[in-house]
Amino acid sequence: MSATTRVPEMFATMVFNDHVMKERLPKETYKALKKTMMNGKSLDLSIANIVANAMKDWAVEKGVTHFTHWFQPMTGITAEKHDSFISPTANGEVIMEFSGKELVRGEPDASSFPSGGLRATFEARGYTAWDPTAYAFIKDNTLCIPTVFYSYSGEVLDKKTPLLRSMEAINKQALRILKLFGDTTASRVITTVGPEQEYFLIDKALYEQRKDLVFCGRTLFGAKPPKGQELEDHYFGAIKTRVLDYMKDLDEELWKLGVLAKTKHNEVAPAQHELAPIFSNTNTATDHNQLTMEMMKKVAVRHGLTCLLHEKPFAGVNGSGKHNNWSISTDTGINLLEPGDSPCENAQFLLFLSAVIKAVDEYQDLLRVSVANAGNDHRLGANEAPPAIVSMFLGEELCEILESIETGSSYNKKDAVVMKLGVHTLPRIAKDTTDRNRTSPFAFTGNKFEFRMPGSTFSVSGPNIILNTIVAEVLSQFADQLESSDDFTSALNQLVKNTYTEHKRIIFNGNNYSEEWVAEAKKRGLLNLKSTPDALPYFVSDKNIELFTKHKIFTSTEMHSRYEILMESYCKTINIEALTMVDMVKKQILPAVLKYSGKLCKAAIEKKTLLSLSCCEPEESLVNRLSNLAACLYKKTSRLDTELLAAKEHEKDLKELADYYRDVIFTSMQELRAVADELEALCSEDCWPYPTYSKLLFYI
Ligand code: ADP
Ligand code: MG
Asked: What PROSITE patterns does this protein map onto (predicted)?
């Protein structure tokens, strides 16, 4: 079969989507379900029963035996508990059954998921509830029902609920604005996301020989190979056959799940690649990105490969990020971040743009929080990803237009036009003039913003909860102001003008990697939250609690619990890494070094006996260096051991503990690594206890 028919036929075969629903549900049931999906109305149990039965029949025809409520707890990955469809009959046989009740609600034990103290105060019981705005799908012979996850007393325990709430918040506020512009056709506003996912692929057999990769997902040791990424020969380079086979297989698995996998290419670092889908609504994009990450790992195994999603698997070459392309659109298909063709559309665009500018400036702390974890700390500000300073890139043209609105001066030197909202038409903002700046954390790229700070392991729910909510908040302020004005056009002009004046400090079109920018940003009063422990406390500031409670995204209790989960996870991650290092030194590195130097000594002695003269300079000098370094390694390991034990003393205060892990433990880890890497460079390859960077990065 040709790809022309094969791909469309394969696409979404594993998804209980609109097409299947239409085909398999009675008309009335279909209509009721659609209504629920559109307006979030609750579903009648009698309807749920019919839907469940149709889903089960469809799934069983495809060989499925189990179902699961698929949810997104605070671990950042997805969770599932499989139940079979079997139901015993009176005569000792079984039939395959799935009820509406089972579809709508599940009850996994919540006690083993991170809850940040909520568990202590509330019952351990947790519930999952079907999110009918996301399609059910089949994975691993199991019918997966996308669900939200909450506790017995109603506290939200997952990443999906707040995401859906944030989408609702921006919908509500954006509709108010559209109404002011006289748009009566749009009945819903949604945010759209296209997450570009970076990853590494290495040989599975080599991966399994490294405890650091197995336990931590990143290498904790490793001398620099002779070649890194300096030749820039990997980026967009021809893809190796083994990798191509993997990518083809991955595309097909994703297409079957309805994921719009579109672009694939080699990335900057050796063994690094990227996959980008066509964008979709934020809820779907989030589910699909989770599925993409899962499939990346699963498919790799089939090809004898391991997929590394960690933000910094290898020192010395780029780490992996996840660019979150984000925009706002109406259900009538209008992209609200796209400059339109008429003066009115332009004015509307500039208002939405102003809202984003104000939101990013006022809530730069939250955007930084949304990308904070131990892994991403290695990337941000390391000249391979944006700095930890949040700023926006708008491009020259847009800046000139805003400048002209602010000062009343002409923006276009040739035509001497003074931009006036509601009067003038903006020029089309060419994509290539806005996409040039690759160093900006938050770049306008023609009709969307590209948030480039998220790390590769992140669920995109976090950054998008923040983006949706902060923009919703500013839109609500704008709507309040405009609704109460008598002269809409002049109020609008004033609003865009004032917003630009007050918030233009957040706009920066230059090189974000430069040292000058760090100094300039400081002058402008922008935050530079270099590490996770620096950033996280901002999440629970009064200003931010007010924001999230106002829009009913989180309660204050939920926010504190999330803060705790994230802080704890930072400490735990570094603790595991440090313990792994100590283990590797004691059980692998030191024994290998001692064995190798023992061999050298023996060889030297034998040589001396045979030749009875002192011609053992290489052996002696090498043994000397090895011995000195081994002593140093031993000392540093003992110190790290002691420091790890002392962490207990800081446990009463999470922030203090996290600072301790960053300042003391992490610093010692880096020192220890330097010594081990020097030893690796001195030892023979066959005595080294695990595969080197050269092998991992270049031999696949
Ligand atoms: P590049 O980053 O190289 O300029 P593209 O502009 O083609 O690439 O798109 C990058 C990602 O942005 C893709 O996943 C694409 O689907 C997504 N994207 C494009 N338009 C939108 C939009 N309106 N909303 C959200 N994502 C979008
Ligand atoms: Mg991009």
From this structure: GLNA_ATP (PS00181), GS_BETA_GRASP (PS51986), GS_CATALYTIC (PS51987)
Burial 394-428 (b: 16+ CB within 10 A, else e): bbebbbbbbebbbeeeebeeeeebebebbebebee
Q: Which ligand is nearest to the CA of 449?
A: 1
pLDDT digits (tens, 9 = 90+) for 239-250: 899 999 999 999
193 lines ligand 1 (CB under 6 A): yes
Q: How far apart are CA 96 and CA 83, in angstroms?
A: 11
Strand-pair partners of 431? none
CATH 1.20.120.1560 in the chain, residue ranges: 569-698
Q: Which ligand places an atom closest to the C-alpha of 329?
A: 1
SS (H, E, C) 455-520: ECCCCCHHHHHHHHHHHHHHHHHHHHHHHCCCCHHHHHHHHHHHHHHHHHHHECCCCCCCHHHHHH
The residue whose CB lies within 8 Å of the most ligand 1 atoms, and thus the one to mutate among 448, 449, 451, 468, is: 448
In the chain, the N- to C-terminal Cα span, in Å, equals 31
Task: Indicate the SS3 state at residue 160.
Answer: helix
Answer whether 277 contacts ligand 1 (Cβ < 6 A): yes
Residue 426 in this model has a pLDDT that exceeds 70: no
Euclidean distance between CA atoms 284 and 430, whole angstroms? 29
Please give the C-alpha separations between residue 676 and each of 10, 201, 629, 645, 663, in angstroms, as whole numbers. Answer: 50, 25, 8, 22, 20
User: Is the pLDDT confidence value at 327 over 60?
Assistant: yes
The radius of gyration of the chain from alpha carbons, rounded to an integer in Å, stands at 28
Q: What is the DSSP letter of 131?
A: -
Q: How far is the CA of 275 from the centre of ligand 1 (A)?
A: 12
Q: Is 446 in the pocket of ligand 1 (CB under 6 A)?
A: no
* 119 Cβ inside 6 Å of ligand 1: no
CATH 3.10.20.70 domain position(s) in the chain: 10-158
Taking the CA of 438 as reference, the closest ligand is 2
pLDDT tens-digit series, residues 377-409:
999 988 888 999 999 999 888 898 898 888 887
* Parallel/antiparallel/unpaired status of strands 322-330 and 189-203: antiparallel
Q: Ligand 2 centroid to 195 CA: how many Å?
A: 9
Q: Is the CB of 266 under 6 A from ligand 1?
A: no
Return the closest-CA partner of residue 166 out of 478, 449, 437, 554. Answer: 554
Contacts of 243 (CB under 8 A, 6+ apart): 201, 266, 273, 700
* CB distance 104 to ligand 1 below 6 Å: no
Q: Locate CATH 3.30.590.10 in the chain.
A: 166-554
Instruction: Name the fold adopted by 569-698.
Output: Four Helix Bundle (Hemerythrin (Met), subunit A) (1.20.120)
User: Fold for domain 166-554?
Assistant: Creatine Kinase; Chain A, domain 2 (3.30.590)
Report how far ligand 2's centroid is from the alpha carbon of 276 (Å): 9
Which of 360, 325, 406, 371 shows the shortest CA–CA distance to 506?
Answer: 360
Residue 592: enclosing H or E segment and its boundaries? helix 590-611
d(CA 538, CA 545): 10
Distance (angstroms) between ligand 2 centre and the Cα of 428 equals: 20
Task: Tell whether ligand 1 has an atom less than 6 A from the beta carbon of residue 325.
Answer: yes
Residue nearest to atom 23 of ligand 1 (CA): 327
Fold designation for 10-158: Ubiquitin-like (UB roll) (3.10.20)
Whether residue 194 has its Cβ less than 6 Å from ligand 1 = yes
Task: Give the ligand at the shortest distance from the Cα of 452.
Answer: 2
The pLDDT value given to residue 556: 96
